């Protein structure tokens, strides 16, 4: 009987073909196609295409995408008032250059994990601010994504995993658009500086004479005007009546000059917010200019919507926004009904207001406030908005992908067995 002869080339070619065919979908990754079956992510998918970021991902073989559902994306006006180049970098900030599965997310330590984004690779990010810090709250399992900057105002919470191609691509939904720290969304070569005279604006408002006098006397107004560039500022200025209503026990005017300056900085956010943005703010706890000077997690304001108006809680008093004094990007000035007294100075156990020395500052980034997830938005489950059906074939698709992977491994094992038999023969 004639011996069956097999070419040395045949088994090698089979193995090479199998390896090549199994990796091919990742070589030509179409991220918008993966998102197309999820109607609630249509706006984010359109942004990927409009900014051409989807083209940057075609040949990426390991990434995690943080997609923002329509309901959260439409509540932010950032996408409408940003330049095209700035918006593209914001979208790149949502592309993590590392594959993360749900087990990977659950194993993230409470101290956090720093992960590089596509924005970091552009060279336009300052320091490591093109990366994100992912932290997990061990108490409730909530996973937050935010800037490495300890007082960054932008963060988001991971809601659910909606798509995974094991070891290559994961797509999670988050509840807010992420903005890199210090990023100027309105950056444009043709945009002139505002150069607003804050003191004059307050005096012209006819109800902020006390605040204007304090700002001039303390010298901090020049610092505020210098901060108009970049991310801008939002100021909460107490009315003259608010100063008149201060209890006699709270002797603001008798404070040392350095503490008085801290109190004034406590009334300013280092980001520009319109009144609408404040009404729909995602992260209620906001750092102030005093936070940047005195240290993370101190001198923060809690901003919320109460009885149809914006409420600002200092930890001691709750004030409300009574009027818009000035609003033109990058400066917003709002009149408030009470003087915002920081608990760090006026509380029962005030802390030292001496700025920590560089040698004593804690390392790492501060964790954002915990955001408890409702059962329907708990990790691992994705619930579309009311009236919208679940993405078609989601669970079946994941099972079929797993079956395909097992089939590929089986075929590869068979091919290797053929090689082994051939060598024996």
From TrEMBL:
Region (Disordered): 349-395
Keyword tRNA processing among record annotations: no
Any Pfam family hit: Fasciclin
A cellular component annotation (GO) from this entry: side of membrane
Subcellular location: Cell membrane
Gene3D superfamilies: FAS1 domain
Membrane topology category: Lipid-anchor; GPI-anchor
Domain (FAS1) ranges: 28-178, 195-340
PROSITE patterns found in the cross-reference section: FAS1
Biased composition (Polar residues): 349-366, 374-389
Keywords: Cell membrane, Glycoprotein, GPI-anchor, Lipoprotein, Membrane, Signal
Similarity annotation: Belongs to the fasciclin-like AGP family.
Descriptive protein name: Fasciclin-like arabinogalactan protein 4
């Amino acid at each position: 009987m004639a011996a069956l002869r097999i070419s040395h080339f045949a088994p090698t070619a089979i193995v090479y073909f199998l390896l090549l065919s199994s990796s091919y979908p990742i070589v030509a990754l179409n991220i918008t196609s993966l998102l197309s079956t999820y109607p609630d992510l249509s706006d984010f998918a359109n942004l990927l295409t409009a900014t051409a970021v989807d083209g940057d991902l075609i040949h990426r073989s390991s990434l995690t995408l943080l997609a923002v559902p329509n309901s959260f994306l439409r509540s932010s006006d950032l996408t409408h008032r940003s330049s095209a180049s700035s918006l593209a970098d914001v979208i790149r900030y949502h592309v993590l250059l590392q594959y993360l599965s749900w087990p990977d997310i659950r194993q993230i330590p409470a101290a956090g994990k720093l992960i590089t984004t596509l924005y970091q690779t552009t060279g336009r990010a300052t320091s490591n601010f093109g990366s994100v810090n992912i932290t997990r709250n061990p108490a409730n399992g909530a996973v937050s994504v935010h800037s490495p900057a300890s007082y960054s105002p932008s963060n988001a919470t991971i809601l659910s995993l909606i798509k995974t191609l094991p070891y290559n691509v994961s797509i999670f939904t988050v509840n807010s658009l992420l903005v890199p720290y210090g990023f100027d969304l309105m950056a444009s070569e043709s945009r002139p500086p505002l150069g607003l005279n804050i003191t004059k604006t307050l005096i012209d408002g006819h109800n902020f004479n006390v605040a204007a006098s304090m700002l001039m006397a303390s010298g901090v107004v020049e610092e505020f005007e210098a901060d108009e560039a970049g991310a801008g500022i939002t100021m909460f200025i107490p009315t003259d009546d608010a100063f008149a209503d201060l209890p006699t026990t709270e002797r603001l005017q008798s404070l040392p000059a350095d503490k008085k300056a801290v109190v004034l900085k406590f009334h300013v956010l280092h980001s520009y917010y319109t009144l609408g943005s404040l009404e729909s703010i995602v992260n209620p706890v906001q750092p102030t200019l005093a936070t940047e000077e005195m240290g993370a997690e101190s001198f923060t304001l809690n901003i919320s919507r109460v009885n149809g108006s914006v409420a600002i809680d200092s930890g001691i008093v709750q004030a409300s926004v009574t009027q818009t004094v000035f609003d033109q990007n990058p400066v917003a000035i709002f009149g408030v009904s009470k003087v915002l007294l920081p608990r760090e100075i006026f509380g029962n156990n005030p802390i030292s207001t001496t700025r920590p020395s560089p040698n004593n500052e804690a390392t790492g980034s501060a964790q954002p406030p915990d955001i408890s997830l409702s059962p329907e938005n708990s990790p691992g489950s994705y619930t579309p908005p009311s009236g919208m059906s679940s993405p078609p074939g989601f669970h079946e698709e994941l099972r079929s992908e797993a079956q395909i992977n097992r089939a590929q491994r089986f075929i590869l094992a068979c091919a290797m067995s053929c090689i082994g038999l051939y060598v024996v023969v």
